[in-house]
Hints:
The chain is mostly helical. The chain has one domain. Helix content is about 70%, strand content about 0%. The protein is built from 4 helices and no strands. The chain starts with 5 loop residues before the first helix and ends with a helix.
Amino acid sequence: MVKVPQSRIDWNLQRFRIALVDLRDLLRQADTEHWAQWADRALTRLDAGDVTGLDYWMDAYGGMGSISDLSIIGSGSLSPDRERAVSEQIEELRGLCYGLAAQLKADIQESRQQ
């Protein structure tokens, strides 16, 4: 079994945090405060060194009413041109945050078993 380098975990945690802050800020712009606060709570945990912030963030995905279902199109919170751009950015960051969180969880689990 190949050991997961701590530097990779640290790097991906940093990437995840940056992406989640960007996503949170876009969610606020789009007037979706519920999900912005969800991101804040995940970030608070991570900033305290609590990797359960990853689990907390991933709990936002899946099921009815999840962040996966979020659409800001037609919400009226942004101008139509800005709405489309923000929607695309949210979509991209949602996928990035999920992928990084899943990879981090796997890497952390792997490193604990070694």
